Amino acid sequence: MAKIRPVGDRVVVKPLPKEEVTKSGIVIPDTAKEKPQEGTVIAVGSGRLLDNGDRVPIEVREGDHVLFAKYGGTEFKLDNEEYLVLKESDILAVLS
Amino acid sequence: MAKIRPVGDRVVVKPLPKEEVTKSGIVIPDTAKEKPQEGTVIAVGSGRLLDNGDRVPIEVREGDHVLFAKYGGTEFKLDNEEYLVLKESDILAVLS
Amino acid sequence: MAKIRPVGDRVVVKPLPKEEVTKSGIVIPDTAKEKPQEGTVIAVGSGRLLDNGDRVPIEVREGDHVLFAKYGGTEFKLDNEEYLVLKESDILAVLS
Amino acid sequence: MAKIRPVGDRVVVKPLPKEEVTKSGIVIPDTAKEKPQEGTVIAVGSGRLLDNGDRVPIEVREGDHVLFAKYGGTEFKLDNEEYLVLKESDILAVLS
Amino acid sequence: MAKIRPVGDRVVVKPLPKEEVTKSGIVIPDTAKEKPQEGTVIAVGSGRLLDNGDRVPIEVREGDHVLFAKYGGTEFKLDNEEYLVLKESDILAVLS
Amino acid sequence: MAKIRPVGDRVVVKPLPKEEVTKSGIVIPDTAKEKPQEGTVIAVGSGRLLDNGDRVPIEVREGDHVLFAKYGGTEFKLDNEEYLVLKESDILAVLS
Amino acid sequence: MAKIRPVGDRVVVKPLPKEEVTKSGIVIPDTAKEKPQEGTVIAVGSGRLLDNGDRVPIEVREGDHVLFAKYGGTEFKLDNEEYLVLKESDILAVLS
User: Fold this and answer.
1) Is the dihedral of CA F70, F73, F74, F80 positive or negative?
2) Which helix (H) or strand (E) segment is G43 a member of?
3) F10-19+35-91 in CATH: which number?
4) Nearest CB to B52: which of C7, C52, C76?
5) C: neighbours with 3+ CB pairs under 8 Å?
6) Chain B residues touching residue C43 (CB < 8 angstroms)
7) % of residues, chain B, pLDDT over 90
8) ipTM of the complex in this document
9) Where is it predominantly found (chains A, B, C, D, E, F, G) (predicted)?
10) SS3 helix, strand, coil % of chain F, rounded to 5?
């Protein structure tokens, strides 16, 4: 499979099909004005660049099961699988 | 129950049903242009990242009874319960 | 009475009924495009967080009689009394 | 007379009636898209708060005769006199 | 003549009547979407305030012949002469 | 061939014809609201200038195969070939 | 000829007539939503002022052949020749 390395403070996520009740019991209510989505982290970037030149490592890790805000991401397909490139700031929480 | 860890300066809150007169006597006037809500803090993130790379711990704690601005949050359900992921800056005050 | 602790650079104010001529003689002209209001400070937050992580104490104190810009606040009722949560930057001046 | 202490980088000004030709000869042309106004500084705040926590004293003083951009101010009456609360950045120049 | 001292990073300019072909040969094409103007610097402020509290002196001097973007300025008349208060950042270039 | 050196935090990319299934298997779904594109890095600028005056080298290199957000770029032709000048922040990921 | 010294992080450019195929082979496709232009650098300002008060010299030099985004510039004529005052950030690349 082609390898993908996100740049800077970006994260690649494999989104779960929407509204599937997952083992963690997450169901996204239709009423929610801005439906968050669930997915698995595939790859993380080098981290956010601060004003002083330091890089801050990304808080989530490969394999983490995450809840994220859908509107910020960019979709693409790799070997016929759908992925999303998100900013770290689009990720709301880690579920375990 | 699935565990949820908010990322960065985010907070997960269990909102109280709206307009319930709570033991703290909080009633949200309908007239208020931007109805704040009440709820209990379920989990807090690692804190806000400053320009110099330091993390500032979140000012509210798990179990705190808080007043927050509704518009900023993202709703989701976990084990059939409704939760909100908010930014720390959406939380207005702690009630005790 | 329930206690209320504003978060960060917020302030809780007990607004005076509008247009009452107060002992300080403040009358808010209707013509003013953005009618400021008067009120008394009930509680102040921990202060504004600076980029370097320091907290700057709030400039006004509990009991101060203040003039503030109405548009920024969030209204709520506590034990049937009306209060406003404001940002420190919404407070224009202290009257004495 | 009630005392008024502006907060932070604010200034209280006693505006001169518009278009009066003042001793300094200032006449505000109607054509000017954004008519500046003239007035006298009544009180100045503690100054602008910098990122490093220092306060920078306000550049104008009580009694200064100033030219200011009207759009930013908030009007109010004190003992039947009209005043304006402005940000320091609304003040364009000092006239002498 | 009344003296005028601009505040902070502001500059007072005596604008040249528009489209006059000046000794420097500057003609402002009508086609230009944002017609710059020419004028002479009358007075400069104390300079721009940086985050660290330092003041940076204004780059142009009294008497400089300058090209500036008109949209940012505020017009006023002093002793029947028309002047403009500009921000330093509205000044494009010095002509000599 | 004319040489091109991007300025600051810019990158010149030779875009791949859209929707070509590439050896890396990237296919950009039409449904994606903001179709990312693929291309090869031709030249990189001196890097992003930080507040403290340091330059941070660009994270991608000449020859890298990248996924980027199309909307930010500026198209131009050089010796009849089409190129794009992008900001480093428009580049989402490196594919290998 | 009148001398022109751009202020701060500005650059004066002599634009090439549009769509001329230049020796460097640059042709600007009509399709490009934001047609970049070519031109020669005539003069550069003192450079960009950083938060710490340092000036960063402009990256391009007098005589450089540059590609720039047209929308940001301000047109003017000097001795019947057309020039543009641009911000350094409007310059995309140097061609040689």
Assistant:
1) negative
2) strand G36-44
3) 2.30.33.40
4) C52
5) B, D
6) 93
7) 57
8) 0.83
9) cytoplasm
10) 5, 50, 45
